[in-house]
Amino acid sequence: MRPVNRITAAGGTATLLAIAVVVVTDLAVPGVGAWWDRHSLIGSFVTSTLILGVTVQVVDQVAARRKVRERKRVAAVQALIVYGQALRTESALIGAPGQPRERDPESEVQALASMVLVAAPALFEDPAARVFMEKVERFSTLLVRMLRRRGDELTDTDRARLSQAKDALSTAVRPLLSRLRPQEVETLEDAAPT
């Protein structure tokens, strides 16, 4: 994500160039200062226009940076929600050994797929979030494969692959969560359905 688009960059360049031309000609060309003195209305108009141009550039930059920062926070929140659902889905699928499952794994996988689809637009443009999405896709693919083999017990190889994918997912979500304050992460985790 670039905070500056081409039109804004061109406007900023034109404004700076105009300021440079006015200053250089006033200092280097004899008689220009006297001309500005005789034409004070034009001088005031040019000065006001250049100040307005600089002000617009500064405000545009601040707004663009704020927008990027907010998008990063939205991506972090979406990632936390998807991450929580991925962990619930794994728990529903694997469960505790010898214990009946409390949740339906199929509905948890469907919920995870829905959350990934909803979160994808917020996560796609952010490089760190895109890495997280790749890890979520790998993790959820493993979960779906294991769910399709109904009745079969998970092998040690299955558990090892799932553990490795879960570790990769946990590693990928950390940079996104660092964008949020710890209190926000706790609040979002507490508000998530269990």
Walkthrough of the structure:
- The structure is a single chain.
- The chain has 7 helices and no strands.
- It is mostly helical and 194 residues long.
- It has 2 domains: 60 residues, no CATH class; 121 residues, Four Helix Bundle (Hemerythrin (Met), subunit A), CATH 1.20.120.
- It starts with 5 loop residues before the first helix and ends with a helix.
- The mean pLDDT is 82.
Name a few traits of the molecule:
194 residues; mainly alpha; Four Helix Bundle (Hemerythrin (Met), subunit A); 2 domains; 7 helices; rod-shaped
What can be said about this structure in brief?
This protein is mostly helical.
Give the helices and strands, then pairings:
Layout: H1 6-28, H2 32-38, H3 40-94, H4 105-124, H5 127-148, H6 156-177, H7 182-191
What is the quaternary state of this protein? single chain
- What's the β-strand tally? 0
- Residue share in β-strands: under 5%
What CATH calls the topology of the largest domain is: Four Helix Bundle (Hemerythrin (Met), subunit A)
Count of DSSP helices? Answer: 7
Distance between the termini: 34 Å
Largest sheet: none
Unreliable sequence segments: none
CATH level-1 class of the largest domain: Mainly Alpha
Percent in helix = over 70%
Instruction: From the alpha carbons, calculate the radius of gyration and give it in angstroms.
Output: 28 Å
| CATH hierarchy: architecture of the largest domain | Up-down Bundle
Structural class: mainly alpha
Q: Whole-number average pLDDT?
A: 82
Shape: rod-shaped
Number of domains: 2
Question: How do the SSEs run, as a string of H and E?
Answer: HHHHHHH
